[in-house]
Amino acid sequence: MAHNLHDTLKEFDSGAGTGKYYSLPQLGRSLGVDVSRLPVSIRIVLESVLRNYDDKKVSEEHIRQLANWAPTAKRVDEIPFVVARVVLQDFTGVPLLADIAAMRGVANRMGRNPKAIEPLVPVDLVVDHSVQIDYFRREDALDLNMKLEFSRNKERYQFMKWGMQAFDTFKVVPPGIGIVHQVNLEYLARGVHKKAGEDGTVYYPDSLVGTDSHTTMINGIGVVGWGVGGIEAEAGMLGQPVYFLTPDVVGVELQGALREGVTATDLVLTITEMLRREKVVGKFVEFFGEGTASLAVPDRATIGNMAPEYGATMGFFPVDEKTIDYFHGTGRTQEEIDAFERYFKAQEMFGVPLAGQIDYTKTLTLDLSTVAPSLAGPKRPQDRIEIGNVKQTFKDLFSKPVAENGFAKKAAQLDETYRTTDGVALRNGDVLIAAITSCTNTSNPSVLLAAGLLAKKAVERGLNVAPHIKTSLAPGSRIVTDYLTATGLLPYLEKLGFAVAAYGCTTCIGNAGDLTPELNEAIVSNDVVASAVLSGNRNFEARIHPNIRANFLASPPLVVAYAIAGNITRDLMTEPVGRGSDGRDVFLGDIWPSSQEVHDLLKFALNAETFRTNYSKLTREGDLWSKIEGAEGQVYDWPTSTYIAEPPFFDGFQMTPAAALAPVRAARPLGIFGDSVTTDHISPAGSIKETSPAGVYLKEHGVQKADFNSYGSRRGNHEVMMRGTFANVRIKNLMIPPKADGTRVEGGLTIHQPSGDEMSIYDAAMRYIAAGTPTVVFGGEEYGTGSSRDWAAKGTSLLGVKAVIARSFERIHRSNLVGMGVLPLQFKEADSVQSLGINGDETFDIEGIDGDVRPQQEVTLVIHRASGDVQRVPVLLRIDTPIEVDYYKHGGILPYVLRSLLA
Q1: Of 349, 599, 635, 754, which one's alpha carbon is 20 to 30 angstroms from that of 474?
Q2: Residue 293: which of 350, 343, 342, 338 has the closest Cα?
Q3: In angstroms, rounded to a whole number, what is the distance separating the alpha carbons of residues 419 and 501?
Q4: Domains in the chain, ordered, with CATH?
Q5: Where are the annotated coiled coils located (predicted)?
Q6: Which residues pair with 847 in a beta bridge?
Q7: Residue range 555-562: average pLDDT?
Q8: pLDDT tens by residue, 346-380
């Protein structure tokens, strides 16, 4: 085989001379396999496995297994995937930097060279999650929001500056440039990489993991990459392959074309609904067919971006002429483009496959002409509603029980009007936040130009947006402002309140900023179900704003339309959007732009010179970033800070892990949760409540409420984050008895046992830890859905939780739990908390993990009831791969990697 592997290194003309590449067609000939039938995404992973063959981490068997990928084989083989680079956003990047800084501290204390801890692949951190919409609807909003951002986050930014000088391969894209995924798409992704070696210059395809779920946006340009937790990303950047089970690949054939008036957002909401129903969790999704080939790259990127919402590991699009056009339009060099195109042609991977050319696990079909204008919500991105049904759906959900996704209100209350103390009339369904935001849509010129055109027509008809509605435009890059200015559309958006307020991830991540005190008071005291409409990808409970309960995802033009309409119960298909200055009703059809109008302006959006100019000057002398001063030296000295603290994950570190794994005995439940508990529920990113354990901690350390900032911004401090674990204001612990009206108590509370005292989950966890009592957490279906939030696992671990037992897990959170030394256990068949009658006063043993742990083995959950009865329940150990067994035995992925680097 070694001889055959050597034969796979071939020459090709890169356009700038002769280059080398590891030829997949030649590998296929050597192995007698027709690699042209493999999904393109599998071939790109196969190239990495082949190129990184070292007979240690990557073996000959790994290459053979993946080359012989079969559509319907049982998935038991593990792939060691060495990625070309790693991308971070700052919420997840800062704790990752803190972890590797702590590793350097350990190395230093052990008398080793701290430089042994160094990223082995390029790492780019894009600061995009820290800006909030404090100021809006004013010309200086952008400037004021950025100044506030820098004053709040100075300690974090100083830490990043230290990281830039301490680590050779660590770079930072500073605040105010854009959202990580759009910057990645427009600038960081280079198509192919090259590396000089003994055998000449070897070219290989771009690939990455990122510490944000929506890293999959990069799949739109044929790059294999997905979101992982920061825990897994650390291992990847410190030389470990990213290990994952060989995936199923679901092929989605797109046919036909979108109808007039239908946007890429409508398409992606339709795909999200369809694929979530198909249960593609943990699978690759690959798009093919003539309809796919017809889509522009920004539309492909929008679909790829939403892969976490439909549950897939990726939503992949092969490289073709449209990809090359996009690279030209975004200012890549001719040399790069030539190498990119010639490489993929040499690998016989250029072009979108047509029906019958690839063997997929399963093939689905979507006729683009069936897609209709839609919103999604009010609580989940997969709950799509055609625009004509939005009014009725909201009315139905208003009085439906919470168990049916409703708001459990009396139907008669729907039309009641309340008054704020400053005179604003407030009704259920009122739109209080309208935001053009998020990488999903602000990377797509067609929908942003459509929003601008709709705003122009609306302003010309005399329509406006009520002054109490919080409107904002937060583009994913400065390019957006350039083309909205060049087309003359920005002034019309500004007239309706959509002035540029930030360049970053704002409303979609929970950085909408606050409403007025008067609105907050009226909502809370009257229990109003208010609405937000945003062009984002996430609308989970309490994510957008703690007091706004109905959150709808929509295309940018629909965001503007609903801001004008002012209430989600206005049926935009049959009722007017508003009344014009001439006193006449204006309907959505009157102001909706045609496809041709949008198309005529697209030439302004892909101007190579604009892209080159923009990204050539990421920082300027005298700007806010240049004034930040970081510490010097190779080892961080951890000054006192409520933002950055040395993480405790290496306390008592020894080069040899504990000899034996111990069974869990007499554990108490810390929480019992229902279905679709998200990582937002487990570890919120948004505002910190003053009375919460985290709020109390900050006040004790001299931080005023106005300076709390967000949980996301404080992820570098474990003291804040462990107090914030399970502290979402909307989380419902089923251990707490329901209220008199049957509704569930919300917030991070639990019942401590055996005392029976009700208290915060954090306080109960500390009491259990002090008593030496292990704890467990129970969940339902899709536990840990949502963002790739490593703190959801880190916080769970620091609270002393030994196992999470659920009906099913979302992919990233499951692996993060293993990475932090927490057991993910899955109920078998029809078993659940409900069927087993678990109520929270029991104790639990977990047997079968103290011997030779095997992936996906059966272990036993022993339930000791208060009555004295004992029940033994088989559960599935969701440690899925051999490497995860090693991680668990080492106490988690971080000690495992540190031992590997120092060995």
Answers
A1: 599
A2: 350
A3: 28
A4: 2-81 (no CATH), 247-317+352-371 (3.40.1060.10), 374-606 (3.30.499.10), 658-682+732-902 (3.20.19.10), 684-724 (no CATH)
A5: none
A6: 860
A7: 97
A8: 999 999 999 999 999 999 999 999 999 999 999 98
